[in-house]
Design goal:
- The structure is a single chain.
- By secondary structure, the protein is an alpha/beta fold.
- It has 12 helices and 14 strands.
- The chain has 2 domains: 202 residues, Alpha-Beta Barrel (TIM Barrel); 94 residues, no CATH class.
- The strands form 3 sheets. Strands 1-9-8-6-5-4-3-2 form an 8-stranded parallel sheet.
- The longest helix has 25 residues.
- The radius of gyration is 19 Å and the shape is globular.
- The structure holds flavin mononucleotide.
- Flavin mononucleotide binds next to strand 7, strand 9 and helix 9.
Length: 345
């Protein structure tokens, strides 16, 4: 039976992506593995696997595990401009061989990469941080623009607040636009829909759930954090181009060395091992965040979180996080509709 309210949050994006609710799981590197993507997809959201710089073997294993856990459509997230070209080529070839239906890309737009996967019939979602990048992504063939604001956790490409950027992009495109950055509640979802956006993308809110592959320490730091505890810094820059900014929970590293944007040069930072994932060393100042499998000095690693962290007070199953968000957004929209109706002459 169709519940009238069940359909009230649906936007054309839901039909395009094949999901029930216009809520996307951000393709968080390390964190958005099959278990989380399946949980979000099975709960009616849209699952995106975070596969930045992962090997084709891991991508194949994650896609197989995801497909075993859900028959919902999904995307694979890659960051073309921050991936060595040979590896990127192999990642994309692997995804196309596997029949991955959609890609989510981030950072600088690489038009030839977009064109390659479009030729193979895939959908392309492109996350951008500026109006200009949105224009380039659309020209390259993207089907969905994700407007990332400066409130976002993880790597942050632009400096505009998410809703301002999304509003500006909406004025120049007919493509579906998704708001990303700082959204952890139904209020944010309702506000995005009221703006005319087609949905939201959430990272931090899903990182702090049972199924995410983040280390429990990272999840608990998000639960304890207020939105004011996050900083935009470029101190976690080893393995990335100079100047790449990330939003993290302030910790001993940002406190001592760069709790702000200072133009740190990756070549001038020392290489000191502070943790391990299996036999893989994790360096101080690197972009790696602590995962389930990480041991060592977790406090000194990049504890990515967006400014919505203050609204996160527990670590529920991802389905419960999504259901709460959707229920709250519905209540807000229904109450706004009642007020509008009451205002009629
Ligand atoms: C732990 C973490 C890892 C991330 N890794 C990626 C990534 O690999 N690729 C990507 O496109 N975005 C990545 N992001 C950024 C997200 O796509 C998104 O912009 C962000 O999570 C939205 O802000 P929010 O965390 O406040 O919801 C990451 C974010 C977090 C929190």
């Amino acid at each position: 039976m169709t519940d009238r309210r069940e359909t009230s949050l649906r936007t054309p994006l839901c039909a395009l992506l094949g999901c029930d609710h216009p809520v996307l799981l951000a393709g968080m590197g390390g964190v958005s593995r099959w278990e989380l993507a399946a949980a979000v997809a099975n709960a009616g959201g849209y699952g995106i696997l975070g596969m930045v710089r992962e090997s084709p073997a891991l991508i194949a294993a994650e896609v197989a595990a995801l497909r075993a856990a859900t028959d919902r459509p999904f995307a694979v997230n890659l960051i073309p401009a921050a991936t060595e070209p040979g590896l990127l080529d192999a990642q994309i070839a692997c995804c196309l061989d596997l029949g991955v239906p959609a890609f989510s890309f981030f950072w600088d737009v690489m038009p030839d990469v977009v064109a390659r996967v479009k030729r193979a019939g895939c959908l392309v979602l492109h996350q951008v941080g500026t109006v200009e990048a949105a224009r380039i992504a659309e020209e390259a063939g993207a089907d969905v623009i994700i407007a990332q604001g400066v409130e976002a956790g993880g790597h942050v490409h632009g400096r505009s607040p998410a809703f301002r950027l999304a509003g500006q992009i909406l004025q120049q495109t007919d493509l579906p636009v998704v708001v990303s950055g700082g959204i952890a509640t139904g209020e944010g979802l309702a506000a995005a829909l009221a703006l005319g956006a087609d949905g939201v993308q959430c990272g931090t809110a899903f990182l702090a759930t049972e199924e995410s592959f983040a280390h429990p320490y990272h999840k608990s730091r998000i639960v304890e954090a207020t939105g004011d505890d996050t900083v935009l810094t470029d101190i976690f820059v080893l393995n990335w181009p100079k100047g790449a900014a990330v939003r993290v929970i302030a910790n001993s590293v940002t406190g001592e060395l760069g709790g702000e944007y200072l133009g740190h040069d990756p070549d001038s930072l020392p290489h000191v091992t502070i943790a391990f994932d299996g036999d893989q060393p994790r360096l101080r100042f690197s972009t790696d965040s602590p995962l389930r499998t990480t041991t060592g000095d977790l406090e000194a690693m990049a504890l990515y979180a967006g400014q919505g962290a203050g609204a996160i007070t527990d670590i529920p199953p991802a389905a419960a996080r999504l259901a709460d968000m959707v229920a709250q957004a519905r209540r807000i929209r229904e109450s706004a509709a009642r007020r509008d109706f009451g205002a009629l002459p």
